[in-house]
Design goal:
GO cellular component, one term: cytosol
Number of helices: 14
CATH topology of the largest domain: Rossmann fold
GO biological process, one term: regulation of translational termination
Helix content: 25-40%
Bound molecules: guanosine-5',3'-tetraphosphate
Shape: globular
Strand content: 25-35%
Number of domains: 3
Number of strands: 32
Family: Belongs to the TRAFAC class translation factor GTPase superfamily. Classic translation factor GTPase family. PrfC subfamily.
CATH superfamily of the largest domain: P-loop containing nucleotide triphosphate hydrolases
Binding site for GTP: 28-35, 96-100, 150-153
Radius of gyration: 24 Å
CATH class of the largest domain: Alpha Beta
InterPro entries: EF-G-like_DII, EFG_III/V, G_TR_CS, P-loop_NTPase, PrfC, RF3_C, RF3_dom_3_sf, RF3_GTP-bd
CATH architecture of the largest domain: 3-Layer(aba) Sandwich
Length: 517
């Protein structure tokens, strides 16, 4: 069936359901206010009654061991990778991204599953390092960005200067959607530039109030200097609407949500190996972008998070697990809310559902109702930290092998099995991943391990003519490994060695990114 035929075969109700989905993440530098904003958003959406603790705060300030404790606590905390709530006739799926940069691969994968990101900026600090990095990831996929300039209730940089900074450091056009009324302790609300309405306590201010006088002067400048909102440029990720507010004081939060309701974006088409899959196509497709274990320590469960990419998914449906070719029955797909989860009787393109499973589903897998397609865009990055796993108790070798496979499937680390038969090597982007691996092996599998250095600092996936790849592997046996999928990887001790190897093997391709799926 052609793409258009599939789209038109979908009943209109599916299309209108999909059109009201909003799937997004919040990106920010630590301390800019992501947690506080998340709480306020969930509260505005009725997902939590009181703006209480969504999760333990101050994660990054804690010592490593405290952090591990937090990870363990997560099983019983209200945090999940996704929180679904309704607001203004839209269904929102808010995807959580890990705060620590050692887990940036996880963040990257999560960002492949969103249609939009809210970039939170601290009004006093402006664009900070991690914001910029996360923004660049969004830009790779042209993800539309909505900007929230937070902490306007404190001393802040000049608003025009902040807009300039966004434009110049991120090469992103800015269009203020609201403007702050008053500053610091005098900040009382926002003025909506499109509707020309005041929001929050600012509504009560007399025109003679100095803040109102300042506002009208500033608005003249805004109109003269800054472009109006352009939907197309926003959808393409070239222009960001900017909102001012204070998450803590709950000012400007609903401005943000109202904007997402008004201009979306609705679920985007997702790239697959063969074609783009539009969200409102009739057949169900879904992409696994994250696996999370131990969400409920009493059950030792393992949840695969799937973005429904198209169609209407219903509970009990059987989908094709494209990597293995087997049928996969969706007995208990689940929606997550701030404090609980519920069976998902139906979900639509754009939604994110949790699928409990015991290792069948892996990151990057596609589930499909009929067509044999594979979604792309969920990558593995070549790790630069490579460590050999040293087992303390040799009797547990088999258990370790199984555990490493399970944890690698979850994306905790990447696993490389050396072709020379030496103990396995794990690869990570940040060392905190190693601590998580060690602690989970001990806690969940009862296996104590240590790490030993390896001579390797680089890994590259090799592709090319099969016989040539095998011949290369034969002559480089002690530098060769197989990854989780059995794909060949060349490990090198230095960038110089890697360059030389690449030059000497022009028939082979060496990749630092592997698309999974
Ligand atoms: P993060 O998740 O981005 O790391 O930031 P988080 O929300 O934890 O906020 C970091 C700090 O900034 C917190 O203070 C929080 O209360 C404060 N904050 C967040 N939004 C605003 C705001 O709009 N205005 C002001 N003035 N402060 C804000 P903390 O002292 O680290 O924690 P806490 O003692 O307040 O819990």
């Amino acid at each position: 069936m052609s793409e258009t035929a599939q789209a038109s075969a979908a009943p209109t109700s599916i299309q209108s359901e999909i059109a009201r989905r909003r799937t997004f993440a919040i990106i920010s530098h630590p301390d800019a206010g992501k947690t506080t904003l998340t709480e306020r958003i969930l509260r505005a959406g009725g997902a939590i009654q009181l703006a209480g603790n969504v999760r333990a705060k101050g994660e990054r300030r804690r010592t490593k061991s405290d952090w591990m404790g937090i990870e363990r606590d997560r099983g019983i905390s209200v945090v999940t990778s996704v929180m679904t709530f309704e607001y203004g006739d839209c269904v929102f799926n808010l995807l959580d991204t890990p705060g620590h940069e050692d887990f940036s691969e996880d963040t990257y994968r999560t960002l492949t599953a969103v249609d939009c990101a809210i970039m939170v900026i601290d009004a006093a600090k402006g664009i900070e390092a991690r914001t910029r990095k996360l923004f660049e990831i969004c830009r790779l996929r042209d993800i539309p960005i909505v900007t929230f300039i937070n902490k306007m209730d404190r001393e802040a940089q000049d608003s025009f200067a902040l807009l300039d900074e966004i434009a110049s450091t991120l090469a992103l056009d800015t269009s203020p959607a609201t403007w702050p009324v008053g500053r610091a302790a005098q900040f009382v609300g926002t003025y909506d530039i499109r509707t020309r309405e005041l929001h929050g306590p600012a509504k009560e201010l007399p025109q003679s109030d100095p803040r109102m006088v300042a506002l009208s002067e500033e608005l003249e400048l805004v109109e003269a200097a800054l472009p109006p909102f352009d939907r197309e440029a926003f959808d393409a990720g070239h222009l960001t609407p900017v909102f001012f507010g204070s998450a803590m004081k709950e000012i400007g939060v609903t401005d943000l949500l109202d904007a997402l309701v008004a201009y979306g974006p609705a679920p985007r088409a997702q790239p697959s190996e063969s074609r783009e899959v539009k969200a409102d196509e009739g057949q169900v497709t879904a992409l696994i972008f994250k696996i999370q274990a131990n969400m409920d320590p009493n059950h030792r469960d393992r949840m695969a998070f799937a973005r429904v990419c198209s169609g209407r998914l219903t509970r009990g449906m059987r989908l094709r697990h494209v990597r293995t070719g087997k049928q996969f029955a969706l007995h208990t797909p689940q929606f997550f809310f701030a404090r609980d989860r519920q069976l998902a009787e139906e979900a639509f393109g754009g939604d994110v559902v949790g699928i409990p499973n015991h290792g069948t589903l892996r990151i990057g897998d596609t589930l499909s109702e009929s067509e044999d397609l594979r979604f792309t865009g969920v990558p593995h990055f070549a790790p630069e930290i490579l460590r050999r796993v040293r087992l303390d108790d040799a009797m547990k070798a088999k258990k370790l092998r199984q555990a490493l496979v399970e944890l690698a499937e979850e994306g905790v680390v990447q696993l490389f099995r050396p072709q020379d038969g030496l103990p396995p090597i794990v690869g990570v982007v940040g060392t905190l991943q190693l601590d998580v691996l060690q602690s989970r092996l001990k806690g969940e599998y009862g296996v104590s391990i240590g790490f030993e250095s390896t001579p390797f600092t680089m890994a590259r996936w090799i592709t090319g003519d099969r016989a040539k790849v095998e011949a290369f592997a034969m002559t480089n046996r002690s530098s060769m490994a197989d990854d989780l999928d059995g794909d060949p990887v060349f490990l090198s001790s230095s960038a110089f060695m890697m360059r030389r190897t690449v030059e000497m093997n022009p028939d082979l391709a060496f990749h630092d990114i592997k698309q999974i799926g």
